[in-house]
Amino acid sequence: MYTPEMRETIKAVEATRARRIKETFPAMSMAERQEVLDAFHPDYITAGMREIRVGASKGQRTPHELADVIEGRPRISADIDLSQPKFETDVLVVGGGGAGSSAALLASENGAKVTLVTKLRFGDANTMMAQGGIQAADRPEDSPAIHYLDVIGGGHFENVPELVEALVIDAPLVIRWLEELGMMFDKAPDGTMVEAHGGGTSRKRMHSARDYSGAEIMRTLRDEVRNHPDIQVVEFAAAVELVLDAEGHIAGAILMNMETEQIFYVKAKAVVLATGGGGRLHYQGFPTTNHYGATADGVVMAYRVGAELAFLDTMQYHPTGAAFPEQIVGLLVTEKVRGLGAQPVNIKGEQFVYPLEPRDVEAAAFIRECKSRKLGAVTPSGQPGVWLDSPMIDIIHGPGTIEGALPAMVRQFKRFDIDITQDPMLVYPTLHYQNGGVLLDAHGGTNVPGLFIAGEISGGVHGRNRLMGNSLLEICVFGRRAGRAAAEHVPEVKLAAPTLEHVTAWNAAMDEAGIDGAIQSPILLPDYTRHV
Ligand code: MEZ
């Protein structure tokens, strides 16, 4: 329930609603976008980042919190006995989200023996948390070429072109694949897909399942993997270190039983890392939309065996994280709310930004409104936010639209006596996604032979900023590609003796660089004693 002080500012929002519904707020010019980004986006605050001091991508900048875990000490020593693996597989998939599931399915389909391991429960992943939708250009007025231009524009023209090409070309196929597997997409009465705009899209191509699109994708893929007779799934088994052979080829991973902390070796001819991002590192103190296990483990492990990193100085702060009530601060308020017409409004009842700017620009404009112009509402705990005028949606599209299209949002706020069909939501940017990560090729391959990656762990496809709906797409496109490529790689592999020599080399490089490495990494679970 809102406080009387907050209610006062809601009155201004209500007073201007009828006028605002008739107005179109202009989008920013490129120069205006750059200006607000430079001044207010967290990626542009130089004090928030530092250079990585050791390893293949030494000199690249990344948030302090991520640099600290990248420069951590391995959790294991190099003298573990690798002569008796607990089990052997062809393709070891690490990560139980959408990317890992897609990789497991395609690796199996292409003839590999597959094991999927996940450190928490199968499906505890950011896939589950994504709400608004998945992009694919599958209408006559759209095309992969137009989708390509939107992705590149959103990414500040720095995306790796062949990755964007793979993303947009595979997109319509991925939608058909998901539907064939049983995903329930939103459909119009005539059976065609309902498709909407997202920030930075020039065509309506956002396919959705209400506002739990990610959960529906996860349900579909998890069911498929679970019911697959040839894919073994091991839960609560965290990868803590990759294993190479004497020739520098991937030879599996060291896993840790999360309950007993027992360490064991799984031998594999290829590994697909699909471990997601690092929102639980809370860069610059931001809250996050991410699931509990999002601690950048894959980046840490891949980097230690020599994988190259890219774009890890760019993180996504989703413009609309819940700013009130306290219990849900940082949780996602889907971009679909703005896609359906809700406007961001300040305490004077004025709209101050076009609602569907690319995410980084929109977030920076929200921060400017609160921190510089001081026109945000402030909660009793001092959290600022701007109003997202959700009741407009029913006025524009007809009563019942909010309940029908945004049931998860309605429920999220109803638990706290806030009715978003009648009152706006208070929102502020929240750490949502890792734009960069481990550099990959168009088939999920890396510069480490036998190491494949997919999903949020990767860097390159989104350049410096991702558009809505391209992460759910990315996990399927690159999960499928990495799974297939890993399976095709398997017959070529003749593993030499496995070794953890790189652990010794890493420790030596850390010592030489004078890094004490107080943290043991991957950290696996967030450390809230460090971040409070
Ligand atoms: O792609 C996303 O991050 C997404 C779908 C989020 C959302 O706002 O719903």
What integer is the average pLDDT?
A: 97
Largest beta-sheet characterization: 8 strands, mixed
Chemical compounds bound to the protein: (2E)-2-methylbut-2-enedioic acid
The fraction of residues assigned to DSSP E strands is 15-25%
Can you lay out the helices and strands and say which pair or pack?
Layout: H1 4-22, H2 30-40, E1 49-51, E2 61-63, H3 64-70, E3 73-74, E4 87-94, H4 98-109, E5 114-117, H5 126-129, E6 134-135, H6 144-154, H7 161-181, E7 195-196, E8 206-207, H8 213-226, E9 231-234, E10 237-245, E11 250-257, E12 263-273, H9 297-304, E13 309-310, E14 315-322, H10 336-339, E15 344-345, H11 359-372, E16 377-378, E17 384-388, H12 391-397, H13 401-405, H14 407-414, E18 425-434, E19 437-439, E20 451-453, E21 458-459, H15 470-489, E22 498-499, H16 501-512, E23 520-521, H17 528-531
Parallel strand pairs: 3-23, 4-5, 4-12, 5-9, 12-20, 19-21
Antiparallel strand pairs: 1-2, 6-8, 7-8, 10-11, 10-22, 11-12, 13-19, 14-18, 15-17, 16-17, 17-18
Bound molecules: (2E)-2-methylbut-2-enedioic acid.
